[in-house]
Write a structure and sequence with these properties.
This protein has one domain (about 40-210). Helix 2 runs antiparallel to helix 10 (about 175-195), helix 3 (about 45-65) runs parallel beside helix 10 (about 175-195) and helix 4 (about 75-95) runs antiparallel to helix 5. Helices cover about 70% and strands about 0% of the residues. The chain has 11 helices and no strands. The chain is mostly helical. The chain starts with a helix and ends with a helix.
């Protein structure tokens, strides 16, 4: 089995919840082991940071590949496009792009990639605004999708890492605070990667225009 297999056979986290929990616990234990053994656990080139970047890159690619073959008017396509951009944005945050190619190339490359991201977000948000009523009509169905529920959990974990990134807790040493931040973000990346392989088939063939049908009939 390979990456393509999982893209073609999305899973339901309800059936694989134990595997997901074990994965989160395992990477946390490995991270603690790295800290205890004195290996670098934070910093832009640490093993944890690199793992985060790889997971986010795979998640972005998975969402793009799953969105491409879907009908252009389907709700699932729009969801995967938005989630691909979300993981792309997180990836830009994690990668030290400003260091690529030296001081002349790195900052320019970083700015270019960020502008591309902003432009793509504008396109996706305009699509969302044009279809806000049918999407709102399907809000509970969308939020109940495994791909969305895992993404929301991943984003919440990213948010939970913010106090440690800013060293809000004075009782923690800077090293320990940075370590906790990286571990939380690593678990968030695992959830986001899992979300990219989770089921969204319920809305794969549902055109956004059809989502308005119940509302039109009711009126």
């Amino acid at each position: 089995m390979n990456f393509e297999f999982f893209l073609k056979h999305p899973y339901s986290p309800g059936r694989n919840l134990k595997v997901l929990i074990v994965s989160l616990l395992t990477v946390t234990c490995i991270s603690v082991l790295l800290l205890v053994t004195g290996l670098p656990t934070h910093g832009e080139l640490s093993a944890i940071e690199l793992t985060q970047s790889v997971l986010l890159l795979l998640a972005c690619v998975a969402h793009c590949k799953r969105a491409y073959p879907l009908p252009s008017a389907s709700l699932a396509r729009l969801i995967h496009m938005g989630l691909a951009l979300l993981t792309y944005s997180f990836l830009l945050r994690e990668l030290p792009i400003h260091e690529f190619g030296g001081p002349q190339i790195g900052p320019t490359l970083q700015t270019t990639l960020r502008l591309i991201g902003v432009a793509l977000w504008v396109v996706v948000l305009l699509k969302l605004l044009r279809q806000i009523k049918p999407i709102f009509a399907e809000k509970w169905a969308v939020l109940a999708l495994p791909v969305m529920s895992l993404t929301v959990l991943g984003c919440l974990m990213y948010t939970a890492s913010w106090p440690f990134d800013k060293a809000v807790f004075a009782s923690l040493s800077p090293v320990l605070s940075a370590f906790i931040e990286e571990v939380i973000e690593l678990n968030a990346c695992i959830l986001l990667f899992s979300a990219s392989l989770a089921k969204s088939s319920m809305l794969n063939s549902t055109p956004l225009s059809q989502a308005m049908a119940p509302e039109s009939q009711a009126s």
